[in-house]
Amino acid sequence: MSDDINALIRREYAAGFVTNIEAETLPPGLSEEVIAVISAKKREPEWMLEWRLEAYRKWREMQVPQWAHVKHPPVDFEAISYYSSPKSKDDAPKSLDEVDPEILDTFEKLGIPLHERAKLAGVAVDAVFDSVSIGTTFKEDLAKAGVIFCSISEAIRDYPELVKKYLGSVVPQNDNFYAALNSAVFSDGSFVYIPKNTRCPMELSTYFRINELNTGQFERTLIIADEGSQVSYLEGCTAPMRDENQLHAAVVELVALGNADIKYSTVQNWYPGDEDGKGGIYNFVTKRGVCDGPNAKISWTQVETGSAITWKYPSVVLRGDNSIGEFYSVALTNGYQQADTGTKMIHLGRNTKSTIISKGISAGHSSNAYRGLVRISPRAQGARNYTQCDSLLIGERCGAHTFPYIENKNPDAILEHEATTSKVSDDQLFLCRQRGIDEEKAVSMIVNGFCKEVFKELPMEFAVEAGKLLEVSLEGAVG
Amino acid sequence: MLEIKDLVATVEDKTILDGISLTVNPGEVHAIMGPNGSGKSTLANVLAGREPYAVAGGSVRYQGQDLLALAPEERARAGIFMAFQYPVEIPGVSNMQFLKAAVDAVRAHRGLDELDAPGFMKLAREECKKLKLKPEFLKRGVNEGFSGGEKKRNEILQMALLEPSLALLDETDSGLDIDALQVAAEGVNALRNAQRSFIVVTHYQRLLNYIVPDFVHVLAAGKIVKSGGRELALELEEKGYSWIE
């Protein structure tokens, strides 16, 4: 079947269009002056600028990490523009009515209507276009419940105490090279605060869109779930098709206090590059949550189908006793995509539990690696981890790798690790075809079956979207 | 229905079928018997369009069209069904989902609307009952953790739902105890009618006690060496394959 695979490895990237709007983009390059300009544009207080500069100075001392199982030419950090915003009369639109209709159209085309009449039922959306949050829906409804959901820029101005207390508390400025860079230049992102004993009345969602050429996107998301609260948050990402590689280096911090519950779901579909591996997003992201109190729970679910390179390890620090961390992941690579993704579960508290379910699917010439760390500290009496890593190969020229690390300092802990590697077999495909099912549909069905344990963790609307996304991303993966 | 003429098939340049000719009329049941390596399973696989079997000569006409020019899924939609000797597992894909996708594909080809989910469910449950399969069977992954008997009954279930014109049964009896064999055979017999034809590939006569054929053909070294009626199978059982070799 390998000849047919060749003929059929073609993908359609539906989100690959460019929006023609006037943008204000800083010239490429990074310096203290550039950071000062970003901070001034966002009308930030002095302490924020100081925090950014501190991060920048740390970043300059740091080295690009080389340990990931990915290959790419070095990123020229001086060739990137660190700030781009749609040009508008004022600094930022005051309401969605003032947002450029071209931008609203863009989100509409992506299936994210923002205007009043067509807002997604039951989902509040913060839309980030290049470096700027262009609007948040359902703000008033959320405010009634005491929930704060706004762009991080607004939060810095309006809720400085919360931001000061928690920003960098989970992912310190110098955590890693890309986190340090993000801390220096982050432009926008979402901020969420759920008050004590409050169940957030609707799903919260941020939709990220990179549009401008040669622009990096450095968003920063901070979610705080106060004691006994509950929130489910969704994140979606797309970018136009461009021949140049674009950098996306985000930081997401989650804080779940005692008895709080955060569910964070991502469907990542950044432009993966063309069929020859040209272009695509470099997705170097740091995501971490801390269960900072007893019985707290953080659950990451991710479906990664996009990006030329993915470097991402959503992690949970289980500090509170009886706290729970979960990681459910589907990472699909096709064409020349490379993914090095996984998680870290750091068990500090007693009776802490973590579950890792990772499904890697490789097709085309792609490379897909799972990298995970489970660390049990000496005082984490009764800690438990269950890890399951499954790899599925489609075709003959892709690769799957698994790098599980376990550091156990407590003899009481129970750790389980299971790993499988399988192929979409000719026999499975023939069975489907012999029943009248065409090959593409068969592959998509087999892959969806493989991912079932993860999809069932996604919120309903997202599970459907994720299934469709896999189908599109796999288009032509098999012949 | 089916007209095979001088069919030659190879695997990796090795000739497996060496000039097979066979005509199957509507409603007929033909049994293909033969020792291991005689090419009887290859015949079923070639008719279904499976790789890596390659056709090196001859022709196959099915309902007036050139069967060999069709892709496997096109043959399936045109009414050719193969019950596998070793049904493969598809983990995580529920039997129901799989069956519906298959039935939808075949119905679309026949110009029929897709069945809605409740309508299909009802149909599938009825067919399950006939094969003594519990309804939970439909929720399990395709062949995932099925016993040998369940796998074979699942093949018959698929056949019942897809309503083929020509069914190819590839050693359906292998790995079945006598009770499971009877249930499977009853399932097949229930589907026999004046329009539907069967090619039953088997090593043992035993299956033919339950699925009684109209014709029996004996294959050896890729050729049909003997053809006859039902009695030929019994004679073979008595004398062994060495008799025809």
List the helices and strands and how they pair.
The complex is a heterodimer of chains A (479) and B (245).
Chain A: H1 2-8, E1 23-25, H2 32-41, H3 46-60, E2 84-86, H4 101-109, E3 123-129, E4 132-136, H5 139-144, E5 148-151, H6 152-158, H7 160-166, H8 177-185, E6 190-194, E7 203-209, E8 220-225, E9 230-238, E10 245-248, E11 251-257, E12 261-268, E13 280-292, E14 297-304, E15 309-312, E16 315-318, E17 324-333, E18 338-347, E19 353-362, E20 367-376, E21 384-393, E22 399-408, E23 414-423, H9 426-434, H10 439-450, H11 452-455, H12 460-473
Parallel strand pairs in A: 3-7, 6-8, 7-9, 8-11, 9-12, 10-13, 11-13, 12-14, 13-15, 13-16, 14-17, 15-18, 16-18, 17-19, 18-20, 19-21, 20-22, 21-23
Antiparallel strand pairs in A: 1-2, 3-4, 5-6
Helix pairs in contact in A: 2-3, 3-8, 6-7, 9-10
Chain B: E1 2-11, E2 14-24, E3 29-33, H1 40-48, E4 54-62, E5 65-66, H2 72-77, E6 80-83, E7 90-94, H3 95-109, H4 117-130, E8 141-142, H5 148-162, E9 166-170, H6 178-191, E10 197-202, E11 215-220, E12 223-228, H7 230-239
Parallel strand pairs in B: 3-10, 3-11, 6-9, 9-10
Antiparallel strand pairs in B: 1-2, 1-4, 4-5, 7-8, 11-12
Low-confidence stretches of chain B: none
Rg of chain A from C-alpha positions? 22 Å
Shape of chain B: globular
Q: Strand fraction band of chain B?
A: 25-35%
Q: Please identify the structural class of chain A as seen in this structure.
A: alpha/beta
Net shape of chain A: globular
Q: How many angstroms separate the termini of chain B?
A: 30 Å
The major sheet of chain B is characterized as:
6 strands, mixed
Strand order of the largest sheet of chain B: 6-9-10-3-11-12
Number of helices of chain A: 12
Total beta strands of chain B: 12
The structural class of chain B is alpha/beta
Total number of β-strand segments of chain A? 23
